[in-house]
Predict the structure.
Amino acid sequence: MAYLTGYQYYENSGTAPTNQNWGSYQYVSLEDIVNNFMLIYNDNLQLINNVTRYQVLFFAKRAIQELNYDAFKEVKVLELDVSDQLRFVLPPDFVNYVRISMFKDGMLYPLSENIQINSATSYLQDNNCDILFDVNGNILQAEFSTVDRERIAGTKKSIYLGHGPYNGREGFCVDGCWYFNYRIGARFGLNTETANINPTYRIDKKAGVINFSSGMANQLCVLEYVSDGMENGDDSAVSVNKLFEDYIYAYIKYAILNSKLGVQEYIVNRVRKDKSALLRNAKIRLSDIHPGRLLMNLRGQAKWIK
């Protein structure tokens, strides 16, 4: 691994972007991990030998992916404006979401996942309700289903206590006057699962989009999500925190020995235990438990609650 000079680190040797190397010392690249393993662990005098580079590269990627799913706290954040179609296209490296919020008036409003279906696929049918096909035998589909059209138009009713016909409440309008089954403000037996005035969403992972309720139209959405760390297939950009470097080597050793024929079971168990122990130690190191942070949380333990 080549070390950077101060000029290279702070100014990227005068080339843009100048912030490219900031914070890079915390990480070790995928290329360095594979090179180190091939140099140190793959030898005729070692337990692992005659292993090709592409095998090591494959298992190193799998280890980094597992770390991103389980241990890393490196959450990516993406903000996009939601159009009138109430759709947010998931980023290409999306694996799972952490939180979805609406940014409005300088504040982040956390959104709740809609337990109701808010999007569907609609097949075209004739007057006899028979499905229509094209000349190739493929089913013809409508651009938007009835559920989607009503959701986009804001006419789809919701079980959530959000924006409704009258100040967020269901009622009946007769001759310009509103009538309700209960007084405005009274909500006995409230279902806390649906007590939410913010817009709602539902993720369609197969379609790769987030579908929102009508209140999210032309609003700014902030998506916090977890990636697999593969940087869209660019191996030169893949890196891992140095605290997990030993775990990566242990994972590769375990994966290779576990897939080989003729390896004694006690050897496989030994490298498996070594892998688990190194992962646990790295998690503890990365936990960032500081006495100052604990003290701030403990200050409220003696607060009087009325």
